[in-house]
Design brief:
By secondary structure, this protein is α/β, with parallel strands linked by helices. It has two domains: 21-255, Rossmann fold (3-Layer(aba) Sandwich); 264-320, Arc Repressor Mutant, subunit A. The protein has nine helices and 13 strands. The chain has helices at 43-56, 81-94, 117-130, 151-168, 196-200, 254-260, 267-278, 284-291, 295-308, and strands at residues 21-23, 27-28, 32-37, 72-76, 104-106, 134-138, 171-177, 203-213, 219-227, 233-243, 246-251, 311-314, 317-320. The strands form three sheets. A nine-stranded mixed beta sheet has the order 5-4-6-7-3-8-9-10-11.
Length: 323
């Protein structure tokens, strides 16, 4: 057995190396971490935004420069492949790039369990072959059958991912849910399950819906950024903009808000606002009344939202899809 490496104290480095970024201010290079938030706060959209940014080299959210573009490997456990593709196409279009030219590789197996050695080995072989700059796993709750409140069980899975990151230099982002009614807690402490999630992350992102209504009637989305070795930021205002199949997150500046004040809500925004306010499935008739849209317009827009994966049909009506 070999000895552990050591140095005399005086020989230790005098300065901490400057942070190197995968995406400026958002994600440090080679970082592992969590993208967290409550349901329906667009976590999946932000993860796909990062995928498009890193693979294309275009600024994330149109604002944060990408320093080390490259391959992205993605596993979306909750969304059908067509929905993932539609969302990626919409984001790519918003950023002025063609999805066909982006090196985004999507894992297409039906399930991936990080608590099963065979699946972990298969994931590592894939990472070793592709050497992605960024690995996205969305969401954690669909990737295991452990007790998320058990520090030991959670730490075991996260440690395997940390080792994978160190072996291959791959940044790893896990999408994870926040606790119900955790809005008053510090962002990292609001994550569901063990505190290991928060402690694990080198870079963490948190999405929230505040109680403040936007000028088109939506609750305000905000993004907070946390790093182990760099400055953090909170309260960056975001909005999901576009029509049906061409949706993308955008940073809302004050000047944007002033312009928006004079813009009539789109048909998509009117339907999503009605569903968000009702917070339960709505019939076609109820949606028509709440949105004030003509039946033909309503049906056409609903069809687009279904294809885009923004809403789904239940036995009692239509409802927003949790992101």
């Amino acid at each position: 057995m070999t000895m552990l490496p050591y140095k005399q104290a005086i020989e230790l480095a005098d300065h901490t190396p400057e942070t190197t970024w995968l995406v400026d201010e958002l994600w440090s290079d080679g970082a592992v971490g969590i993208l967290g938030g409550e349901p329906k706060c667009c976590k999946s959209f932000l993860s796909l935004e990062l995928a498009v940014a890193v693979s294309s080299g275009q600024p994330c959210l149109g604002r944060f420069p990408v320093r080390r573009p490259g391959t992205v490997l993605l596993f979306a456990a909750e969304d059908a492949p067509r929905i993932v593709k539609t969302r990626l196409m919409g984001i790519a279009e918003a950023r002025g790039v063609d999805l066909s030219g982006l090196d985004i590789q999507v894992i297409t197996c039906e399930r991936l369990r990080l608590d099963e050695p065979r699946d972990v080995q298969a994931l590592e072989k894939t990472v070793a072959a592709l050497r992605p700059r960024l690995l996205i796993l969305d969401p954690f709750v669909r990737l295991h059958r452990i007790d998320e409140n058990s520090s030991h069980e959670v730490a075991s899975i996260l440690e395997q991912l940390r080792l994978m990151q160190r072996r291959y230099g791959t940044s790893i982002l896990i999408v994870h849910h926040a606790k119900k009614n955790g809005g008053s807690a510090r962002a990292g402490q609001a994550l569901r399950g063990s505190s290991e999630f928060h402690a694990w992350g080198d870079s963490n992102l948190y999405m929230r819906r505040t109680g403040n209504r936007g000028l088109v009637g939506h609750d305000q989305l905000t993004l907070s950024i946390e790093h182990r070795a760099a400055a953090s930021r909170t309260g960056i205002p975001l909005a999901l903009k576009g029509e049906a199949e061409r949706l993308a997150l955008e940073i809302e500046d004050k000047i944007d808000a002033l312009v928006t004040a004079n813009v009539k809500p789109t048909t998509t925004e009117r339907i999503e606002r009605a569903l968000a306010e009702e917070n339960e499935p709505m019939t076609l008739s109820a949606l028509r009344q709440a949105s004030g849209l003509r039946t033909a317009t309503l049906c056409k827009t609903i069809k687009g939202l279904l294809v885009a994966g923004r809403i789904h049909k239940t036995t009692t009506g239509y409802a927003l899809v949790g992101n």
